[in-house]
Each structure stands twice: as structure tokens, then as C-alpha cells.
Prior knowledge:
Chain A is an all-alpha fold. Chain A has helices at 33-45, 56-66, 73-84, 90-93, 99-106, 112-120, 126-137, 164-173, 175-180, 193-201, 205-217, 234-249, 253-260, 277-280, 290-302, 306-328, 342-369, 373-386, 391-405, 408-422, 428-440, 444-457, 462-474, 478-491, 493-496, 499-512, 516-530, 536-543.
Amino acid sequence: MSENATPSLSQYFVQSDKTKSEKSDISLELSDASNKLDILKLEDNQPSSQNKNEPIVCRLFSENAQQPKDPTAAFFDLIGSSHSTNRNGVISELGLSTATNDDGFAARVAVGSEAERRRDAWIPNDKTRQILISCATSPPGTYFPDKENLTMPGVLLEEELGDNVGEAVAVCLGEAEAAERRIITANDVTQDERGLRELVQAGAYRAAINLTARLLAIYGQGRGRGGNPSKHSPHSLQLWFTRISLLIKTKVFSVAQAEAETFGQLDKPDVFYQFYPEMYGDRPGSIASFSFRLLLAELPMHCGNSKDSLTKLFNVWSIVKQILQNLKKGLCEDGNPMEISESDRNDSIRLWGGREARVMHSIINCAISLKHYELAMDLLGQLCERDKVHRHMLLSALGRLHLQVGNISGAEACFKEAREIKGGAPDLRELVDRGLLSVAQNNFDEAFYNFQEASVLEPNNLMILNNMSVCLLYGGQLKEAISVLESAISVNPPHALHESLLLNLCTLYDMESSKGRMKKFALLRQISLYQADAPTTILEKLYG
Amino acid sequence: METEEHLLALKVMRLTRPTLSSPLPLTCDSKDLPGNLFNNALQQDPTSVQGTETLCCGQFLLLPQSPVNIYLGETFSSYICVFSETQQVVRNIYVDLQTSSQKLPLSANPPTAELAPEETINIVIHHEVKEIGTHILVCEVSYNNAVGIPATFRKFFKIQVLKPLDVKTKFYNAENDDVYLEAQVQNITMGPICLEKVALDASQNYDVTSLNFTNDGENIFGSTMLVHPNSICQFLYCLTPNKNVSDMKKLSGPIGKLDIVWRSNLGEKGRLQTSQLQRMGPDYGDIRLLINELPNFVVLEEPFTFKCELINNCERTVDLMLSFENVEGIAWCGISGRKLDPLPPHTTRILEFKAIPLIPGLNSLSGIKLLDTFLKRTYTYDDLGQIFVVIDDQKLSKSP
Lengths: 544, 400
């Protein structure tokens, strides 16, 4: 509180001398908590200290960032290497996944700066650009934007998320069984990014959400801190990205939406490096990652407002297109006429081309959720044209889109073209597509046969087993349908206890007899044994 | 209603088409905090499709989770499961389904002889719905209990059949006896539908040409006839009377019906036929006068001729008196009040007229009158055809 004795209305994140504090006009309101905050930021603020005096979380982050491989690297490499064969999926092509891609870039890049420039490039809107120019050109400590131009996030969730599976077990199976449940919680891991990843990997998303709240408190963005100015760093924004992603993954959409509101579309000046010249010098670009931008644009769609998402996604797309145009015109991503090497430019075009495709995927998904199928088909058609490598996979997706609206001949044409491009013996996807076509033609026997053929290729593929089970039901074989799903679960419980599969199985149990309830409890027991988390919708189904 | 305990129970599930389930496509860059964890989770999700993980066009069938409307022309499918609630063996089980019009035995004939405690009787029914409104399906199960005492119970299922399409038709009669049929098909269901087939089954008196394809045979609506809720697709057909239909009156009345097949979610199919479309045949009366030859351009104040076809539609010979009326813009040349030669039944004759245009511009030919002297009935032909009157000009005057 002593700092309040010397209020400095004229300071925003200014570095004074040793007693410098993070002050803004609004910071007068800050309470004791801000003392803690100030100490942290004190260290954080020293431009030269990036690797020295950072708070623990930051240090861990930078360590991890520098490590080519993270603790789960073995896991990624597995997928990475499978991707380097020619059956690599769109994910890697989109530049989303894998160490392989990074290495591909890193090999040619002496310092991280080129890769960083490419990765962080963004074109802010005009208003933000003006403010950033003012930031860069004013003498340090003399430029203060309005509060409305600041991003002021805070954790809104009042309490930590509990163990919803445990609660369901307690209600249905009794406290005794609930007490036997052992799961990983936010307290069981190191209170840092590494711990956070451990939770995510274990599928303990709710615990991970709890940990993000704790870590954000270190940045003065914890519980109840919304609406108060605080400073952003790559790490704090990554925490937010992770938190909001996980809130969506666990379908706590209303909280995700409320907590994300202050970020808008990440076009306020304080999420750009130029806003903090004293820390980042003249480094350009966005502190918020591209994934975060995409996530925020998609968020309204998950909350039932797809129209809003459509506008936002098109906006993201237009900027990505502009970046690609700039690159092709010989400029930097953001339109800066700085010279960049040819290989750098090609890498960047590849990166942003991949991001463009990813945005198009999101727009397609959004169009589907709006039942705006023409738009989805049109964009999917465009993707088929531009991505020759994955053309057959995209055509197969387009075919299924046709099936979804009931256009059987259109679907057949797509599947046929995909088959001709791919050639060779029918692969799993093709056999499944055939089965789906039979489903659409109301021929569930034929569909079952197709799926069975596919299951020879991958006997434990859950999707195929599930589809076989569905066909059995439509063929009047309820008991067999149930046993297919039950055996799938017994073979691979952690993987098979999946939301959609469980929904199907519960539906079958409901049909079978009045003993369905006991069988659902058995499922709940399995979930409790193998899953850290389960979607609430499923748990409600199991209660019933 | 049912208070007594039964040894058997019955469950019913409506089998609408499954849907395709997809994961929530959350992804991130490898440099983002979660590393590849999100991407890996997505790739390992059973509902994601390898190679197109971030597209929500999955392959994973999800059973219907919420009630779906049923529409006229669709097929109501249902799974009926009869199971035993006790440890006793139940004998002689009949399962019947009663619709508004008929009673269908569902279980095999002879009836299921015995049902052990763990056994079930499974029946999938398909019932095409042919009427709009509330339908009640009654499922009746009769059985004998362990000591042979018969028992019966019923379950009722209400289904509300809605109207899927609104079809509006309009006819246009062309002068050459062709009829154009314009059909507007409006989707009044809750979701988008795909029109798989819209065809006009014409009655035998007509040959039908669909005008919904380009000369290259392509559908003018594009490859997908996707119709959103409340949207309308408009189709046009040309009906040409068969050569062997001589009596024009036969061309009134039924001309055919529209046959429409659509599909919705994952191929759910519906089919409707309209009732016979009735054409209000143009009432030509006993005689008709049609333009046979007429110049498009005529020169001001210079006489021109044109020919008309006079048709006797009736069964008697008609005697006609031709007269001209003064109309603006045209002066008739010829004798008004002239009696024509008698015209036998179902015959035609060509008449030639001569007139002088008096006003430049577009003029219509009006003022010809025919009087049926037997019935004392007058036919007035106004706006019989149109001519464009030009002022004498070197170029135009050369043209005939």
C-alpha cells in the first residue's frame, strides 16, 4: 500500500528506478495483491533479464521453448515419423503438428528470430497500428493509451472445478466407491507449465483448468482480476490460450466465452510486441499466437452463435490472405519492405499457406453448423483444387458432406473421384465411405458388410466397430450391437470410453431392458477407473 | 391406465437416420504451450478422420439423440423390443401393430412359443406415412404366463406427421396449344432437403419436355438441388398435345402429376406425388380465330395484308358474318358485314385481311367481329396480334 502514497497517474508499465512499479491511473485501485504483482513484474520488466531473473513459470517456459523436444517428444516423434511417409495427414500439412516441421524450419535458421517473425507476424487494424506507432515513437514512459484499448483479463470461475466423475460415482455408486477413485489433480504436479502439460496429457482437463487459474494469478490475471490492467507476455497469453481451449474441450462454454470477452479478436495494442518497446525493442508481431486468434474466432460457434464466428473467421482469413499477398509481393508478412531471404520467404509462404487452409477448415465447420452447406461445399471444393496431395481425403470429406444433406449421387461422384486418384486396393477410409453410402441408401446389411471389410484392416478401430454396432441395431440385432461395443470397451477402455461411443451404448442399453441402469453404472465404474474427466452430458446419461 | 403388473415389457425406439459425429477440432502450433497435446488428442479421437482431422465431416455414426419430425411421404421406422421382466418363462407371445387403417401382426407366425428370462423379441417396423396429422400406433402384446393364464397389454405411440412440401402450380397456354406448367416446390420442413427427383408424369394426351436442363443436359440448379427451409425451387415444363388428339376439349382436365423424391439427413428419403393437376382448358367456344401470317413491320399509311386461320370446333356447320369495327390506328379495307361461306364441323379455313396503319409505333390488331348467325352470338377479336408501324423510310420501305 505504500506505493499508493506516491500515485503516478502518468505511468503505464513504466520502468523507473529500482522502486519502479507497474502503475497506471487505474492501478490506484490495486490492493495488496498488486504488491506481489509488482515484485514479479519488477523482474519481468528488465529487458536484459529474459533468461535470468524471470519468475519460475517463465523460466520453465523459455527452457521448454528452447528445447527442441518437450517431455512428450517421444510421443510426437512417433506421429511425426509416421507423417514423414506419404500418408501424412492434413494436420502436419497445416503446419500444426510435430517436431518434424519445426526441425524443417529450424535447420536453415541460424537464430530463432526469422522463425519468430514468421510465426508471430500479424497485421493489426488501423486504430491499433496508430497506437503502436505512437508507442514506438514516443519517448519511453510518455505514451498512455486509453483503458478501452487495453486487454484486461481475469479468471471468472469462482471456484476450482471439481471432479465431476467422482461426484457422479458418489451419487450412483456410493461414497465408498467414490473414495477409491484416484485421479491426478492440480496439486499433484509441479505448479508450472510442465505440470500443466502433464495434466493435459493425462486428460485431466478440469485439473489443468484449475492450474491455469493459479498460474495466471502470478500475472495479476487470476480470480477477480478482470478489468484491471496488467501486462501481457507470450507466456501469460499462452496460459490463456490453453485455459480457454480446455474450457471449450470440457464444454464449459459460458465461462470460456465470458473469460475470453476482453480479448476481443486480439486486436488491442497491448497484445503486440511494439506496445512494450522497453522490453522487446523494435520486435514486431503479435504476442498472442495464431492458434489463439483462431480459437477466439471459433469460440462463438461453440457457444451457439455460429454467425458471429463466420464473420470473425472471414476476418482472420482476409488478414492471412493479405500476409500471403505481402510475401508474394516481396514484402515482409506485415507489409514491411524489409529484405528477407528466399528460403525464409518460402518457409513463410508455406507456414501461412498452411494457416490459410486451417482457417478455411474452420470456416467450413462453421458453415456446416449453420447448415450453410453451399458455402462449405464451395470451400471444400477450393481446398481440393489447391491441395493435390490430400485431394482424395478432401474429396472423401466432400462426399460425406453430400451424404449429410442427402445428395447421394453427388456423394457417389466424390467417392469415385477419390478412389480413382488414390488407386490401388481400397483403404480403410474408402471402405467406410462405401458403408456410409449404403447407410444413406437404407441398406444397413450392405453397410455392415462394408464396415466388416474395413475392420479386417484395423480390427480394433473404434469408429468401425461402432458403425458395425449401429448397423446391427438397424438390422434388429440389439444384443449383438451391444456386445460389439462392450467388447470394444473391454479391449481398450481408456480410448473407447469416448463420448460418442458411450452415447450410442447408453441408447442401446435404454432399449434393451429395465436392467439398463445397472449396466450404465458399470460403465460409470469404468470411466471412474480410466478417465480423469468426462463430459457432463455423458455423466447425465449414465445417471438416468 | 395399466395398473396390473406384466411379465413382459416393451420398449420402442424410433429409427431415424444416424448422424455423423465429429470431434471438436482444437489444434495448436507446436510452439504453443500445449505443444502437440491437442493435436495428438484430436488425431486419436475415434470420431476424427485421419488426414482431415480438422474438418467436421466425420465417419462415426451416432444414433439419433433427439426426436426428429416425421413428414408425409417419409417412412416411419421403429425398433420394438419385447423382453421379460421376470424369471418365469412366458409362452405364446403375439405382437401386433395397429395403425389407423390396419392391424399388422409383427411377431412371426406362429407366435413366439417361449420367451426365457434373458431373451428378447426384436422387431424393426417400417411404415410409410400417407396422411398428415396425428397417427397413433398401438402395439399390443398378448402372452400366456407360466400357469397359462392369458394376458394382454398395449402401448400407444403418437406420431405427428407434418407436411414437408408446398407445391404451387400455374399454367400458361401458348397460342400453338402448348401448355407451360410452372411448379414451385417449397421446402416447409425444419431443415435443408435435397430434391432427388422432380418429374412431371404427364397424362397420355401430352408429351412433356422438362425445361430444367440446359442444352448440354446440365441441371440448371447446379449439381445439388439443395433447398433450405422455406426456400422455393421453381420448375418449368412444356406440355405438347399429342398429334393424335384432335379434339381440343380433351386437353382440358387432368394433365399429369408431379412426382417428387427428396432426401434429408444422411439419405432419409421421402416421396410425394401431387394429385392430378387439372388444367382449366381454355374455353375456345365453337369457333377460334388465330393469326396465321402477319408481318412484323408495316409502313405507315400503306396497306398490308395478314392471314388468319378460322377453326370450327363444334359439331355443326356454322354460318358466320364478318364485320370490322373502327378502331384507333387502323383502317380496315374490305367489306364489313359480309357473310362467309358455311364452315363444316372440325374444319379450318384461311381468311385474308387488309388494313392501313394510321399511327406509327406498336399497334395491335383489333376490331374484327364474327357473328354466328344461328346462335346470334358475337365473337370479338381484340388484340389479335401486333404490328410495328414505321414511317416510310428508304430502307424500311424496301422490306416487304
